[in-house]
Specification:
Largest sheet: 7 strands, parallel
Strand content: 15-25%
Number of strands: 12
Low-confidence stretches: none
Oligomer: single chain
Mean pLDDT: 93
Helix content: 40-55%
Number of helices: 16
Length: 387
């Protein structure tokens, strides 16, 4: 019997990677749902290839165009995620949640009800709404696998191990495109330079986040929530070669280092299959292993690392504010409204304002409160920039 699969965000980099994996083993899978925001052409192409009967397009303009397509007229196409209970009559085998941004939070929480296993590649959903995700995972007895390469590496390392034995976890960071660029020259970097990551092929938003190092701050928050590890046991270390994805030091004197190629295919492949399935990968790179080149993360070079010092230990709306401010400033940089260095300068300044700091003690009551806060922060910043 074919495994039934749903892919939320199938036209993004993670979704396309999963699509490519399934293409090579098409006889074993049936894709029952694909979703996208605006890219209706690619979504329809994927749907036609796999004969998918259910599509979600959240952008209204794209939805109205797509539903006129001859193939779309033969299947069910929806404009939002309220349709899930109509699509799924019983639990499917596997779902991938790879919608970027906070807009991926609600669909992630909703689809947990209808799947036996969920792989989550959405940082914002975990950072802002982990308590709600965890609640549904437990309620519906759904298995969870983190797909971020660092968290997947930590997850695979800690399986079956008493977490009380953990001494320290190191999350590796490439350092992005400006690791060796003098601080003075960062003022004039352009969009192309900022998205030109030296080792990973990623979308514009995550590439900018890597260049500012806020992505690593986000990953520390994710690790704390997923693995229930205090911030004091989580560290960032620069590793330009991006070959090592996690280092876990145990109290018994052992240290485990997880290495794999700079490809998201490996964590995605392993989230889809059991450990018995073989993946074609490169031979162990001994030249790289002989010179791993680890460095301390310098807060002068990457000022957003300082955010780790002001994070609350308990879940709060402050995490939503952090994500929302970053999203907006990255958007403004991509629109050429601010300089690259303004992202970190303005973020650090805003996050230390009392009007935001007070939210460290306020826990979100529901998903709607998180989404409302996200919208408010972005609208406020847009207003101040214009005025």
């Amino acid at each position: 019997m074919k495994k039934k699969v749903a892919i939320l965000g199938s036209t993004g980099s993670i979704g396309k990677c999963l699509i490519d994996i399934i293409k090579k083993d098409k006889k074993k899978f049936e894709i029952v749902l694909l979703s996208a925001d605006k890219n209706y052409k690619q979504l329809l192409s994927q749907a036609k290839f796999f004969k998918v009967k259910n599509l979600i397009l959240t952008n209204t303009e794209s939805f109205n165009i797509a539903k006129k397509d001859s193939y779309a007229k033969k299947i069910k196409i929806f404009n939002d995620f309220n349709c899930l209970k109509k699509i799924f009559k019983k639990k499917i085998d596997y779902s991938m949640s790879s919608i970027s941004g906070i807009q991926g939070l609600k669909p992630t929480i909703e689809i947990i009800k209808y799947t036996n296993k969920i792989a989550i590649a959405n940082k914002e959903a975990i950072i802002c709404g982990w308590d709600f995700i965890q609640k549904n995972l437990k309620k519906y007895q759904t298995e969870f696998i983190p797909v971020d390469s660092e968290h997947f590496s930590i997850w695979s390392t800690l399986k079956g191990i008493d977490q009380n034995l953990i001494d320290q976890i190191y999350l590796t960071a490439s350092g992005g495109p400006f690791l060796n660029k003098p601080l003075k020259k960062l003022e004039k970097v352009n969009i192309y330079q900022a998205i030109n990551h030296p080792t990973w092929k990623m979308g514009k938003k995550i590439s900018i986040d890597s260049a500012t190092m806020i992505n690593k701050v986000f990953e520390v928050i994710e690790a704390k929530k997923i693995f229930k590890i205090p911030y004091s046991k989580l560290s960032i270390i620069i590793h330009p070669k991006s070959y090592v994805h996690a280092i876990v030091k145990f109290k018994n004197g052992l240290t485990k280092i997880v290495v794999h190629d700079t490809s998201m295919k490996i964590p995605i492949f392993n989230s889809l299959y059991s450990s018995q399935k073989i993946i074609n990968s490169k031979k162990l790179d001994f030249k790289t292993l002989n010179n791993l080149d680890f460095r301390d993360a310098n807060p002068k070079k990457f000022p957003l690392i300082k955010v780790l010092k002001i994070l609350p230990n308990n879940t709060s709306l402050f995490e939503t504010i952090l994500v929302s401010i970053n999203d907006k400033f990255v958007e403004l940089f991509l629109r050429k409204k601010i300089k690259f260095t303004d992202i970190s300068k303005k973020m650090n300044k805003m996050l230390n304002l009392y009007s935001f700091k007070k939210y460290k003690k306020i826990k979100p009551k529901n998903i709607e409160e998180i989404i409302k806060m996200n919208t408010k922060i972005k609208n406020d910043i847009e207003y101040f920039i214009k005025n």
